[in-house]
Design brief:
The chain is mainly alpha-helical. It has one domain. The protein is 79% helix and 0% strand. The chain has helices spanning 5-41, 45-69, 74-91, 94-102, 107-130, 141-146, 148-151, 155-164, 170-199.
Length: 206
Amino acid sequence: MFNFLPLAITSGLETFVWMDYRLAVLFTIAIPLFLLIWAFVKNSEAIQHLLIIYWRVASLLAITVYLMIAAAPISFLTSLIARFLIPIALWFWVDLNEEIRELRNSPLKASFNSWRWACTIYNLLGTIFQIPFVVCGFKSHNELLSDPFCKVWLNPPWLFKEVFHQDWPPEFIGFLGFSGLVIYTVFLCYFILVKLQRQGRSATGN
């Protein structure tokens, strides 16, 4: 009986991981994309602005997927960082928070606020859950592939590759992921060291 325990644990973890990826598609891609289009249609500049900031920050999740396709251990660290940064990006800006709070009640405002809270809770819980997997970020490539508790996170990105990048070598996809990570890091450092010092918590700089 005890021989089946590791298999049962791995199976349960795999189910949870696939559910997490499905929720990620819903909360971090589908809903915010729909809200951004809706905000442009309704010409709601505050919501537009915050959603554009969100997409810039959340792009680290896309980078993480490409890194995971290449089974790069650093992807476990970027995943954790992305989940941590997204709630900050959604609530950090004093001026946008005030503008959104002062908007007249509407289906767009209610939908946006509901998503913002749901996305925040989802990412905070995801951050807590992924902490035990930080150790995967310090394994070698081969160790990562041989550890079932780390490898389980790679299966959904590998399916993504089979659907959208079937003919692309994993090495090339990994190169794209690392290139994106370098660009993301440069812009993040510029924001922290330069823009944050100038603008503080004002997204518009006013």
